[in-house]
Write a structure and sequence with these properties.
This protein is an all-alpha fold. The protein has one domain: MetI-like fold, CATH 1.10.3720. The chain is 80% helix and 0% strand. The protein is elongated and about 75 Å long. It has 9 helices and no strands.
């Protein structure tokens, strides 16, 4: 028991490292959520469009990234892009990779939501004289968004957890802070239990929001 308390005290001394890790995890997650949502909506609209060639190209693009590990994508951005003359620091590389994979998943969520809008609603909007853009903006997207919001929040939770892969390229996120602390506290279960608690505290508000949205929108 005394050893356990001593180890907790040592971990507590590393709170600046943990706080920095939490800050970087939050920053990466925020960028990924904002950029991934904006790009994902654009891709999703194209994925659900009547232009088959556009839907095919977007579908092929998103399938490639949804079907490969996030860690591999982070490595490609951080280690391979510099060979093509695109130099990125670890934070920028992590933000780019996470934003892209999030956009790919969100695009499929958005496309599914658009396809779920009853055809009669679209036909009624067309008969009322609305242009294709007006139909999308005033009829289709409001109904689709209502259906996909819970799934979007769930995707945001996955993004927060997936952000841990950036520790592999040396970025001091929450997971990396655990590796730093475990060098001084040789109790991996305790150290990464604290790290896991940190991720839970970040994700729980989103999980709670997702459950509330599911109840209010059904």
């Amino acid at each position: 028991m005394n050893l356990f308390l001593e180890q907790l005290q040592v971990i507590a001394q590393y709170y600046p490292v943990v706080l920095k890790g939490i800050g970087i995890t939050l920053a990466l997650s925020f960028i990924g959520i904002v950029a991934g949502t904006l790009i994902g909506f654009v891709l999703g609209i194209g994925r659900a469009s009547s232009h088959k060639w556009l839907a095919f190209v977007i579908g092929a693009y998103t399938d490639v990234f949804r079907g490969t590990p996030v860690l591999v994508q982070v490595f490609v951005v951080f280690f391979i892009l510099p060979e093509a003359g695109i130099e990125l620091d670890s934070f920028s590389a992590g933000a780019l990779a996470l934003s892209n994979i999030t956009a790919c998943f969100i695009s499929e969520i958005v496309a599914s939501g658009i396809r779920a809008v009853p055809l009669g609603q679209i036909e009624a909007a067309a008969s009322a004289g609305l242009t294709s853009w007006q139909q999308l903006r005033l009829v289709v997207l409001p109904q689709a968004t209502r259906m996909i919001v819970p799934s979007l929040v769930g995707q945001f939770v996955l993004l927060v957890k997936d952000s841990s892969v950036v520790s592999a390229i040396g970025l001091l996120d929450l997971t990396r802070s655990g590796w730093v602390i475990v060098q001084s506290v040789p109790n991996g279960l305790l150290v990464f239990g604290v790290v896991g608690a940190g991720y839970f505290l970040i994700c729980y508000p989103l999980l709670h929001l997702s459950r509330r949205l599911e109840k209010s929108l059904t």
